[in-house]
Amino acid sequence: MPSVTVAVITHNRRKILKECLASIFGGTLVPDEVRVYDNASADGTLEMLKEEFPQVKVVENKENFGLSYCHNQALKNFTTDALLLLDDDNEVAPDMLEKLMDKLFSEEKLGIVLPLFMNAYDDPKTVCFCGGETSLWSGRNILRNKNFSKEQETYPTYRVPNATLIKKEAALATGLMDDRLFSTMADEDYCRRMALHGYRAEFLLSAVTDHLQEVKRSDARRLGLTNPLQTYIFARNRAVLVKRYGTLLQLIVFMLFFQPLFHVYYLFNMRRYGAPKSFRKAYWAGIGDSLRYVFGGKLPELSEIRQRFEA
Prior knowledge:
alpha/beta; Spore Coat Polysaccharide Biosynthesis Protein SpsA, Chain A; ten-stranded mixed sheet; two-stranded antiparallel sheet; 12 strands; 22% strand
């Protein structure tokens, strides 16, 4: 069996991180190395890791730099044949990693493979995500059908969040993630760039992980209004993705028709639901930077973005 490193990203979620790590070490395939990238947790996470998981290598970030930054830390430093990028809100099935590894190395041009994500809070458990992509015409998120047949083995995908097993040769060909995208759509940008090198990404429907973060159904959550930084990213990144990977016609259609519709909808609903002024200001900043990127090809660096929004 090829070797594998598991890199878990966490921030102030000590309890579910503990459950996540316990599920990893309780699996049928124990990783060759497990690393935890901690984004400045202040809830006793580091103490718990030292006491209960001394075999884990811990990388302590002094500030919360976001998912893409930590993913790049892991991509720079792994030496095994594969790397599993895992968010802390997963409790993986005992055979998940073994199934993913078997599938990943069964085909030369399979660069990424992911498990089926189940909602741990539903009874019985239901599928919460099994792949998708962003439409390069409209910017809309297109999700794969959750009602797949039992005979179906995989789903192709450009969206690769949360539990992503990457083959080393594909990672070397693709390089690092664009940490300026911070989180939303950074995974799709990476996956589309990997596809340019001939590698596919697929969901393996027989491999399963339980998603431990309960879905919040508030109006703010549905709109992506979790904080000013996320609001800024939400307003900006669709245009970045379409500019990079769409045709000129797709970009024109998106910018002239669909992008204005998105902006009107979200700005109207932010006012309707009483979003703080800082959120609306962040959204307008995202609009401005999306236009600067489309017409000038420039994105602010991660350090500048964090300074502006105090991430």
